[in-house]
Amino acid sequence: MLEATRAAGALLPGGRPGVARGVFAHAVVSAGWTVVLSLLDLKRPIRDGIIAGVAIAALDLEVIGRHYPAIRALPRGAQWADHVAFGILVAVSLGRRPVAGRR
Fold first, then answer.
1. Which residues contact 94 (CB under 8 A, 6 or more apart)?
2. How far apart are CA 8 and CA 91, in angstroms?
């Protein structure tokens, strides 16, 4: 259950998988992607979240992750589903934030 968390630890300098390192790396990566999504115009949050999640998964898992054996070893389907769920949840959450000047 913690394999994805451990694997994320490999992204930090030193490249060693581990739970504590993975929690930190995962938090930084998730915060970074949340900032990126907050800069987008998410007019249709569910659709846009799915698109964002697929794009994030492709970059995280297939481009960057291929250089990290611990990430490559993770079950692909579950990781892609997790990234898509993240995209949807963040997009929907951001879509509900108040916009300055709008009532």
1. 34, 37, 38, 42, 45
2. 23
Cα–Cα distance for residue pair 96/66, rounded to 1 Å: 35
Minimal CA–CA distance to 73: which of 2, 7, 5, 1? Answer: 7
Q: Which long-range contacts (CB under 8 A, 24 or more apart) does 59-66 make?
A: 60/29, 64/11
- Please report, for residues 5, 13, 60, 79, 87, the alpha-carbon distance to residue 30 in angstroms, rounded to integers and kept in the order given: 12, 18, 11, 14, 10
For residue 96, is pLDDT > 80? Answer: no
Tell which residue, 27, 26, 40, 28, has the closest CA to residue 95: 40
Q: Distance from CA of residue 75 to its chain's centroid?
A: 16
The pLDDT mean for the chain works out to: 92
pLDDT score of 100: 57
